[in-house]
Amino acid sequence: MKTQKTILLVINPIAGGTDKKPIIKRFKTFVTENDYTAVVYETTGEDDQKAIDELVDRINPERIFISGGDGTIREVADVLKEKEVKIALLPSGSANGLAENLDLPEKLDEQLKIGLADHFMDLDTLDVNGHTCLHIADIGVNAQLIKNYEQSEIRGKFGYLLQAFPTLVNSKFPFRVALKVNGETLEKEGILVAIANANKFGTGANINPEGKMNDGKFEVLVFKNFSITEILKTFYGSKNLDPDFVEVICCTEVEIQTDEAIALQVDGEYLGEETRVKAQMNPNKINIAVPSGFKL
Ligand SMILES: Nc1ncnc2c1ncn2[C@@H]1O[C@H](COP(=O)(O)OP(=O)(O)OP(=O)(O)O)[C@@H](O)[C@H]1O
C-alpha cells in the first residue's frame, strides 16, 4: 500500500480577528482530494513552538501551510531553522507583509494551489537582536506606532494608525544614530531606521524598491526628519519611496547604536526599547511557495 504524504496546517485562530473554520475545512478537503493526509495544528499562544517542533518531528510533513499574520509565520520559521521543510502561506492576519511581498492572490483556493505546486523561492532570513526577521524590522516612529497599536487592543487594518501622529510629534524623534556598516561608522539623524529584506510593507507601500528577498543581502534605510506625516504615508499609504527623505545602504550586517533607547519592531511585533540593534543574515534560508510567474 502506498503511504500518503502529510501536509500540516499551522493556523492561528485569533489572527486578524476572523473565523478560521472555513479555512480549516477547505484545507482539509483540498489536501485530501490531492492524495495527501491533512493534519491541523491550531496555535494556543502558549508554548506553540515546542508543540510544533515535536509535531513536525513526529509526522514529518512534506510541507507546512501557515495561516495567520506575520507573527505566526515568524514563529513557525523559527522552529524550522534546522529542518528542511517547504512552507506555503494562507494569509489571514491583520498584517500580512510577507504575503504582500510574494504577490500571493487573495482567494483561498488559489493560495492552496500555489501551496501544492512546485514553485519555490529560497527566502533570506535575518537575525535582529536574536529574533528571526522575514521582511522588515525598524526602530523609531513606526515601531512606536506599533507599540501604541498593540496597547490599544484594537485589531484590524493599520490605516487608522495614522491618526496617532499627535502622540508622536512631541516624542524623542528625531534621534541620533551611529551605524557600523560595510567597515565604516556613519553618524546620522533620523526618525526611523529600517532593516529591510523585502520591498513592501503589509499595506503594499514599496519602501525598499531595490530589495530582493533571496540575494543574501538586506538594506538599511535611514528616514531623515523630513516630515513624520510624509514618512508614515510612505509606510502605510500606497506611495513609493521618496529618495529626498531616505538614505539606503545595502549590506549583510549592521550595528545600530542610539544615545536614547528607541522602540524596536520586527515583522510587525513590538519588542521593547533598545539602544543597540544588531542585524545580520542568517545562514538558513526558507523554502517558500510562490506564484508561478513570481519575479523579484
Ligand atoms: N489561540 C491563541 N490565543 C491568543 N493568542 C494567540 C493564539 N495563537 C497565537 N496567538 C498569538 O498571536 C500572535 C501572532 O499573531 P499574528 O501576527 O499571526 O496575527 P495578526 O492578527 O496579524 O496579529 P496582530 O494583530 O498582532 O498583527 C502571537 O503573539 C501569538 O502568541
Topology overview:
Elements: E1 6-11, H1 21-33, E2 37-42, H2 48-59, E3 63-67, H3 70-79, E4 86-89, H4 97-101, H5 108-116, E5 120-123, E6 126-128, E7 131-133, E8 136-140, H6 141-152, H7 165-169, E9 175-181, E10 184-190, E11 192-196, E12 218-223, H8 228-236, E13 246-251, E14 253-266, E15 269-281, E16 286-289
Parallel strand pairs: 1-2, 1-3, 3-4
Antiparallel strand pairs: 5-16, 6-7, 6-15, 8-11, 8-14, 9-10, 9-14, 11-12, 12-13, 14-15
Helix pairs in contact: 1-5, 2-3
Bound molecules: adenosine-5'-triphosphate.
Adenosine-5'-triphosphate binds next to helix 3.
Task: Provide structural commentary.
This protein folds into two domains: 6-118, Rossmann fold (3-Layer(aba) Sandwich); 128-281, Tumour Suppressor Smad4 (Sandwich). A hairpin with a 2-residue loop joins strand 9 and strand 10 (184-190). The protein has helices at 21-33, 48-59, 70-79, 97-101, 108-116, 141-152, 165-169, 228-236; strands at 6-11, 37-42, 63-67, 86-89, 120-123, 126-128, 131-133, 136-140, 175-181, 184-190, 192-196, 218-223, 246-251, 253-266, 269-281, 286-289. With 296 residues, the protein is α+β, with helices and mostly antiparallel strands. The longest helix has 13 residues, at 21-33. Strands 6, 7, 8, 9, 10, 11, 12, 13, 14 and 15 form a ten-stranded antiparallel beta sheet that branches. The model has no long low-confidence stretch (mean pLDDT 87). Bound molecules: adenosine-5'-triphosphate. Adenosine-5'-triphosphate is lined by residues 12-16, 43-45, 68-72, 93-95, 155, 268. Residues 2-132 form the DAGKc domain. This is Diacylglycerol kinase. GO terms for molecular function: ATP binding; kinase activity; metal ion binding. Its cofactor is Mg(2+).
